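BUG: 3D viewer hangs when loading the predicted structure for this chain

Environment: internal workstation, default settings.
Expected: structure renders.
Actual: progress bar stalls at 90%.

Input used:
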Amino acid sequence: MIRIKAGPRRPRPRPRARRPLRRALALGLPTMWGAIAITYKLTCPLAQQNDMGARIVTSAVFFAVGTGLIVQVRRSLLRELRQIRQIAGAAQSALLRPLPPRLDGLNIAAAQLSAERGAVVGGDLYEVIATEHGVRVVMGDVRGHGIAAIGTVAAVLGSFREAAHDEPDLAGVLRRLDRALARHLRERARAEHPSTGALDPDSPVAEEFVTVLLLEIGADGELRALNCGHPWPYLLSGGGVRPMARMDPLPPLGPFPLPTELPFVCGGQLLAGEALFLYTDGAEDARDGRGGFFPLVDVLAEVTAQHPLPQSILGAVFTALLRHTGGTPTDDVALLVLRNERRPASTLSGARGTARPATTHPHPTNYPQHNGV
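Structure tokens produced before the viewer hung:
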């Protein structure tokens, strides 16, 4: 007996009759409240009297009608606000998608905190991709924060997600990001000032820039990096904290052209059990009520000795950061921790895949947007 396996059931579409009903209620209820008030005023004998008792009753009726109108309008606005937030949250999550907890032998944890109230994504960006060239990472910070910077974040991330697989070296990836950013700024300037048709040097768009850190982790843990105006990551090893490199970075992308030669910086090796802590400058520049900067290195040294796992490190650093700022940071903050949990090279067998591996129990590594905690 041959059994034909039925395909997955399609979800039943929601009945469209509910939408006209909601619209009718949204328009009909205020109309009904107004009709009640007018009918009472014109037809009720009590409303025609001028004594104190009649005035009190009339005032109570109009107060009830006004309260009903306010409640109805408030419910409609809250419903629309919930729908808008759901759509915005889905779009922002697709832009800065959650990273897998493990990728090519690396344990990963990432979090982003937007300074813009109600926004999940701000001006910070990050991505981690396994390629045939190694695990490639981008960490960036767009000038400004909040919703205005989301378009630039989308342009840079979209370019990186393709270039990371296509380009054999980091220099090629960086040049692709630079061209994508320049194209995005030209289109944005053309949209804001259609008459010019070009990027005006005096336009605010011409002053936009993005700090970018490109990182490549080879199969043996070798670290290669290109840095355009971004803070260098910290290497966490045995409770110690030190910068991965100390040389001056290149200028940020946007205002200045890239140099002809782009030699990568060798950051040594990321050994088994060691971790890299990547961050945007919103972490180090965060201040308390007295103007003191957040002691990121001291917090990292204390946290790493107690919590070796990336998820624990990330949670502890964010808790300390929010406590330091009183729960209200003034700039976007993005943190990314990569811990090498690969086996020694002698025990590895087979070739490394070139795409994101699927996890058995995937879960987002982004902390939800938080304000005022």
